[in-house]
Design a protein that fits this description.
AB hydrolase-1 domain-containing protein; four-stranded mixed β-sheet; alpha+beta; globular; AB_hydrolase_fold; Rossmann fold; 4 strands
Amino acid sequence: MLTVTSKDVTKIAYDKVGQGPSLILVTGAFSYRRFPGQVQLVNLLSEHFTIYNYDRRGRGDSGDTQSYTIECEMEDLQAMIEEAGGSA
């Protein structure tokens, strides 16, 4: 497990698997990076891509803050984009 720090200092947990162009996977509202279907998808895609599979804030091994905002979710994704090479 790796972590990246979001703009509000929240730690975001992720796994990095595979090789090739970067691909960031964003799970659904009730999922996390180790959900069996998510792991299966990572295994299929990692043959062709470097997969960044992260836990959205408040899920899995990622941290959270008192007040939720969609802007925080966007900042988390921006931190992942920067970690993956800077563009999406």
